[in-house]
UniProtKB/TrEMBL annotation, chain A:
Domain of life per record: Eukaryota
Annotated protein name in UniProt: RBR-type E3 ubiquitin transferase
Record's catalysed reaction(s): [E2 ubiquitin-conjugating enzyme]-S-ubiquitinyl-L-cysteine + [acceptor protein]-L-lysine = [E2 ubiquitin-conjugating enzyme]-L-cysteine + [acceptor protein]-N(6)-ubiquitinyl-L-lysine
Organism taxonomic ancestry: Eukaryota, Fungi, Dikarya, Ascomycota, Pezizomycotina
Compositionally biased region (Acidic residues): 1-29
UniProtKB/TrEMBL annotation, chain B:
GO terms of molecular function: ATP binding; ubiquitin conjugating enzyme activity
Protein name: E2 ubiquitin-conjugating enzyme
UniProt-listed Enzyme Commission number(s): 2.3.2.23
Top enzyme class: transferase
Nucleotide-binding among keywords: yes
Keywords: ATP-binding, Nucleotide-binding, Transferase, Ubl conjugation pathway
Phylogenetic placement of the source organism: Eukaryota, Fungi, Dikarya, Ascomycota, Pezizomycotina
Domain UBC core: 4-153
Keyword Iron: no
């Protein structure tokens, strides 16, 4: 479904022509052919955007540079400054155009001074000079041939200055905000001075870092976190909206991630919830599991107690309460049947068990959601394993029966849909854990149940013997489409309710458990 | 390490000898000049009075463009010294982003001595000790003095 959407939106007439030619050549795949023909009639209609989708744009390194150049060019004439100086001003104001123009119009000289661009600096550009009798405070060399200082007057020999810049740029990755090496001096080394002192690969690295700071400074830009990916994403969603919107974006490198926190896609759960849930799971899940399996609480003071011997006669270390491990009743009531508890109906034991059950509810509740969350994570991995095995066998089938590559692609889309749906399902459980009950939670849970059933049905089909898969093609494609549809319904519904503030997520106050 | 850096370390050692800090002794080995052994007495006006502390200052290869690394070899109860076998310190000009190449070891020694007189609990490496220092000074003083007797005599 998703891939078809993209296909639609990017389609131009030339593609359409190509597609027609393709489908003519592969006439025997009736279903595919019809689908394509149907879709291509609607090329001019952009698919309606779903409520859970946000607008974004993928930017290449070239786009980013062009963007910077365009902003500089636009503002340059307004400020009556050459582009080079405008770029310095922009970096000084962290690419905040409004603030730059505001401050500049307010007090031009102060702004120029602060950015190292004052008239004085312009009339006497930075230069390397020899100063007789000078001793460099870094290397202690007397009378070096070349020395350098910015307007602040902190003078060092050129070798030391260069080494300082190299350390900052290469080792610490700084660029736009390198300070003067002088003790306690906060003056930023401006790009004119830098150009005088650094060359070659260091200069290249510096320029690269400057581009990076542009993306880092702009609130609407973020790097794709995938390894080796060079793209950045442009998205308008702001930090303060993140409780209401979950901005999943798709990078051109194929990575789906959340623009808010740059973690992997976690729809429908908002970033704050995800952060809290992950922390809770890291802290608690193993401990909680263990506590649930191996301990009980003292019926009197509710301290958690681990049974460390075979005897059922327990004495709480904390409150000295004596009770029976089996029935949780008061030990003194056991009379002569010590060490052999069979008194299930006693009143005190009954009450104690009730109280115990209640206090364990919070823990059990957490484990309920955690286990389902973890299960989908695990199943997604298993689904993938099975798919990879199947794919291998399908290749063998292709070789022996002469089936074409395109014919086995339905397995690929089914597998991808499964991965995507399980990821969504996984997060619905974290979501549900924090969701306060109201009349909408039932709908959420129904949606969750429907998606889960659709996913398990499709997942099951992957376990069928390979020779049957070809015969199940149509059914499998139907189930894939149904899964995707259920996922969209769930995400859409949740996104709308979240945006309208209809769902109450308890992520500010931690539940005790 | 470059000859320039060696030259500078030698010069810094001479500076420290010319202007010695009270209660601070430097063991300098010309064969291995990137590792200084420091013997520092607990300042009289501090809770560490009477204690003798062994410290190490290690100069990285990039010195003076990267800061020297300081570690306490004698155990000390102090918010700014890690309470482990490393005894490391990481604050003020010892932090890479604060350090400037013209800064000198002598300033580092001054910083350490001043921190013994007045710890900086707001930039602590040991949060529980810092908390003790801020909220329960009597208890802090007692433990610190106790540690002087146990480890620093």
């Amino acid at each position: 479904m998703d891939s078809e959407d993209e296909f639609n939106s990017s389609q131009v007439s030339e593609d359409e022509f190509m597609m027609d030619a393709d489908s003519d050549a592969e006439d025997d795949y009736g279903v595919d052919h019809d689908d394509v023909g149907f879709e291509s009639q609607h090329t001019d209609i952009k698919p309606a955007k779903h409520a859970y989708e946000v607008d974004f744009k993928v930017c290449s390194p070239e786009d980013i540079e062009a963007q910077q150049a365009r902003q500089v060019a636009d503002t340059s004439s307004l400020l009556e400054q050459p582009p080079e100086a405008t770029a310095i001003l922009f970096r000084h104001f962290r690419w905040n155009k409004e603030r730059l123009i505001d401050k500049y119009m307010d007090n031009r000289d102060a702004v120029l001074e602060a950015a190292g661009l004052s008239e004085e600096a312009a009339s006497s550009p930075p230069r390397i000079e020899k100063v007789p009798g000078f001793v460099c405070d870094i290397c202690c060399d007397e009378d070096p041939e070349e020395t350098f200082a910015m307007k602040c007057g902190h003078r060092f020999c050129v070798d030391c200055y260069k080494q300082y810049l190299r350390t900052k740029i290469k080792d610490e990755g700084e660029a736009a905000r390198i300070r003067c090496p002088g003790d306690g001096c906060n003056k930023i080394v401006d790009s004119k001075s830098l150009n005088l002192l650094i060359t070659g690969d260091l200069k290249e690295r510096y320029d690269e870092l400057l581009t990076r700071t542009y993306v880092d400074d702009k609130e609407n830009l973020k790097w794709c976190p995938a390894p080796e990916c060079v793209y950045a994403i442009d998205c308008k969603v702001r930090d303060k909206e993140l409780m209401r919107v979950v901005p999943t974006v798709h990078c051109d490198c194929g990575h789906d991630f959340c623009f808010g926190c740059t973690l992997d896609d976690h729809q429908p759960a908002p970033c704050a919830l995800v952060k809290k849930w992950l922390k809770k799971c890291a802290d608690d899940s193993e401990t909680a599991n263990w506590i649930s399996a191996h301990t009980k609480e003292c019926p009197k003071c509710h301290s958690t107690i681990e049974k460390n011997g075979g005897c059922n006669h327990m004495t709480c270390r904390k409150c000295r309460h004596e009770f029976c491990w089996m029935c949780m009743g008061i030990w003194s009531e056991h009379g002569t049947s010590w060490y052999n508890c069979n008194r299930y109906e006693e009143k005190s034991g009954h009450e104690a068990r009730d109280a115990q059950a209640k206090s364990r509810q919070a823990l059990e509740r957490y484990l309920h959601y955690y286990q389902r969350y973890a299960n989908h994570e695990q199943s997604a991995k298993l689904d993938k394993d099975i798919y990879l095995k199947t794919e291998k066998k399908m290749q063998q089938l292709q070789n022996t029966t002469g089936m074409s590559w395109i014919e086995v692609q339905f397995l690929d889309s089914a597998s991808q849909a499964l991965q995507q749906c399980r990821r969504t399902l996984k997060w619905t459980y974290a979501f549900a854990y924090y969701l306060a009950r109201n009349n909408l939670t039932q709908i959420f849970e129904d949606n969750q149940k429907d998606l889960e059933m659709a996913v398990e049905n499709l997942s099951e089909m992957f376990e069928k013997p390979v020779d049957q898969l070809q015969g199940l093609k149509v059914e499998m494609m139907d189930k894939t489409a149904y899964c995707t549809k259920r996922r969209i319904i769930l995400l859409d519904d949740t996104a709308v309710n979240l945006r309208e503030g209809m769902l109450d997520l308890d992520v500010i106050h931690e539940r005790e458990c | 390490m470059s000859t320039g850096a060696k030259k500078r370390i030698l010069r810094e050692y001479a500076e420290c000898q010319n202007d010695p800090l009270p209660g601070v002794k430097i063991n300098f080995d010309e064969q291995n000049m990137t590792k200084w052994e420091i013997l520092m007495d607990g300042p009289d006006q501090s809770v560490y009075a009477g204690g003798h502390y062994k410290l190490e200052i290690n100069f990285p290869n990039e010195y003076p463009f990267k800061p020297p690394v300081v570690s306490f070899k004698t155990k000390i109860y102090h918010p700014n010294v890690s309470n482990d076998d490393k005894g490391s310190m990481c604050l003020g000009l010892l932090r890479p982003e604060e350090w400037k190449p013209p800064n000198k070891v002598i300033s580092v020694l001054h910083l350490i001595r001043n921190l013994l007189i007045e710890p900086n609990p707001d930039d602590a490496i040991e949060l529980s000790i810092a908390n003790d220092y801020k909220t329960n000074r009597a208890e802090f003083d007692k433990t610190a003095k106790d540690w002087v007797k146990r480890y620093a005599k």
